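User: Peptidoglycan bridge formation glycyltransferase FemA/FemB family protein, Nocardioides marmotae:
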Amino acid sequence: MTVREISESEHLAFVRAQRSASFLQTPAWGHVKREWRRQSIGWFRDGEEAPVGAALVLYRQLPKVRRYLAYLPEGPLIDWADEDLAAWLTPMAAHVKARGAFGVRIGPPVVTRRWDAAAIKAGIADEGVHRLGELAPTERDGAGARVVSQLRELGWRSQAVAGGFAAGQPQHVFQVPLAGRSEEDVLAGMNQLWRRNIKKAAKAGVEVTSTSTVEGIGTELKAFHDLYVHTAERDRFTPRPLSYFRTMVEALAAEEPDRITLHLARHEGDLVAATIAIRVGAHAWYSYGASSSEKREVRGSNAVQWAMMRAAIAAGADVYDLRGITETLDPDDPHVGLIQFKVGTGGEAVEYAGEWDLPLHRPLYRAFDLYMLRRG
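Assistant: Predicted structure for Peptidoglycan bridge formation glycyltransferase FemA/FemB family protein:
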């Protein structure tokens, strides 16, 4: 197995051939993360011209030195079921090291455990349970466990952060399975409150519109961003600038006509909720959301979420991904409200293998590690 740089068109062709892949592993995402140097790489077997694996590598330079952290968010796209992961990861590490990397960080897209909605609700109600990890999973994935074991044996270091969100991509997410399910099936799987709120929004006259073109999203993006900034002020998080979303829309929409979609929920002309959805193959994500503090009673957030789920079902998606959650099930923790909202969809909490580092230049990696620890 050898690893070498490939063109973005070769990379995109490989992504298109997969049933699903993370949008963070598309060539377009490299154009969104402008502060990183981007590179598409492919894995090749001897004598074969077509790649059998691919990845987007983002290189982040250390201050004052020409050395880099090579980052493969939610990747690489390789055969993670292979019992010899060294055959894939060793040539990849050698490739990025030759290009100045002092360390490499990956996010294997493999699931280790799942908890269904009933299990999570029981966990929240149980005073003796405070975290997902303390709750018996509904399902354990043997393949995911083998990946974690192999990574440790090969010298990779887990970057899991207890309790909250990690600095990189979330290890725990919430997903609604869609494969083989109709709109009626998904709606029936929701709790009574979610179904009632969706009906309430429709009865109140909430209208949800969607657009996937650069021109269409561009027309509405300022309205979305204004509401998003309002949401950030209310919920006390730091918002991204409008320019970031413009770059994101232009890059993703140029790659595929239905890669990114803006959904807007209005009531009597007032924007009450808005979201950005992304889809790669059979995997659909809720990426960003915003909601008004006014007219909460018309349930615009439920209406726009249901519109995104229906669009994912219509597109043939296997999963609707509501992205990150924390591990907390403590009713006194402010983060528990996020998982309670998502549990109402009838989906499941999913644990991935998480992010893993391999030091390639140990003194520089230790300095980087210390720097990150000081940043908190």
